[in-house]
Structures are given as C-alpha cells and as structure tokens.
Amino acid sequence: MNRSMATTHSDVRARVGNISLWILQIALGGLFAFNFGLGKVMGSEQSVELFADIGVGQWLRHVTGILEIVGGIGLLIPRLSGVAALGLVGVMGCALITEVFTVDGSLVAPLIWLICAATIAWFRRYHVLALIRQLRALRSSTGS
What is the maximum alpha-carbon separation in the chain? Predict the structure, then answer.
C-alpha cells in the first residue's frame, strides 16, 4: 500500500470519527439543554418531586437545570465542547451518587449520560488544553 492511500484511509477515519462525535454532541446537547435542564428550571412535576425526595431543597433543582442547559449549549460550541462535557460528567457523577445514596433509583440512565459526556470530554480534550493555554497566556500577559 502506498503512503497516499494510507493517509487517505486515516483521513477518512478521522473525518468519520469527528462527524460521529458531533452527532453525539448535538444529541446530548439537545437532551441536556431542552429536555433535562429546561424541565428542571421550568419546574416539571417529575423534577419537583425528585428534588423533594432528595430533601436538599428546590434551589438545587434550579442550579442543576441551569448547569444542564449551559452544558448542553456548551457542547455545541467547538472551543467549549470539552469543558462543557467535563461539567456534564460532574453533574452526572453527582446524579449517580444521589441515585445510589438518596433516591434508590435506577443507575442506568445517569450512567449512560455520564459515559456519553466522558466520551466527548476525552475526544475533545485538546479543546480543554487549548483553553487552559489561552487562559495561562492571558494571565501572564496581565501580570497576575
């Protein structure tokens, strides 16, 4: 096999991988922003009952909803997609812990969403690293 053919195959694989990741990001972003997050912020009956069962207060429902909306939207912004995915990993990690110790609910859904967000975070890690480099450069240029 010649070199140009190998490059072409790897380019195609990379392109297919990137497209697949974008499909996952769009689906997960819409799910978090418009289904999970808005439901919590708008006070759907199910989310109000869930957070009442948790017993911390409805303020946590609002905070969680806002984090889910911001994370879902962030998945759709290339430079923020890795950081947004990391944030959603944190939200879903807390959801898993809550399901285990407080609600005694099913772990399947939060685990699936956590795995999806972690996958995006892993494959978009270079966005996170680039953002960290930019913040460090900004900080050093301002003399802080």
Answer: 64
Are 99 and 105 a contacting pair, CB within 8 Å?
yes
Q: pTM, whole model, 2 decimals?
A: 0.87
**pLDDT of res. 106:** 85
Question: What pLDDT was estimated at residue 33?
Answer: 96
Quickly list H helices, the chain: 3-30, 38-42, 45-54, 58-74, 81-98, 108-123, 125-142
Integer CA distances (angstroms), 1 to 4, 6, 7, 16, 19, in order:
9, 7, 10, 21, 26
Q: Name 130's Cβ contacts closer than 8 Å, sequence gap at least 6.
A: 79
> For helices 108-123 and 81-98, what crossing angle results, to 10°?
160
- List the structure tokens of 11: 């380019």
CB 136 within 8 A of CB 87: no
Residues 6+ apart with CB under 8 A from 127: 78, 79, 80, 81, 82, 83
Ranges of the chain with pLDDT below 70: 1-7, 144
